[in-house]
């Protein structure tokens, strides 16, 4: 993945978007950064990075995230 595409994904997370990055970017070499972007940042911005190359698993994760947010808003 191009560095610019990774940075664009991080900006989307900063704006509160659930963002899928594929192919998995170079950030996976920094475990603390991966933990921040895939878990902890959601409590700060509402956004989150999803890493993965399996389209079925990614689609399931996106659906689960949407359902979680809907339930939190009382829509499910």
UniProtKB/TrEMBL annotation:
InterPro entries in the record: HCP/CODH, Prismane-like_a/b-sand, Prismane-like_sf
MF terms in GO: anaerobic carbon-monoxide dehydrogenase activity; hydroxylamine reductase activity; iron-sulfur cluster binding; metal ion binding; peroxidase activity
EC number: 1.2.7.4
Sorted UniProt keywords: Iron, Iron-sulfur, Metal-binding, Oxidoreductase
GO biological process, one term: response to hydrogen peroxide
PANTHER family found in the cross-reference section: CARBON MONOXIDE DEHYDROGENASE, HYDROXYLAMINE REDUCTASE
Name this polypeptide is given: Carbon monoxide dehydrogenase 2
Lineage: unclassified sequences, metagenomes, ecological metagenomes
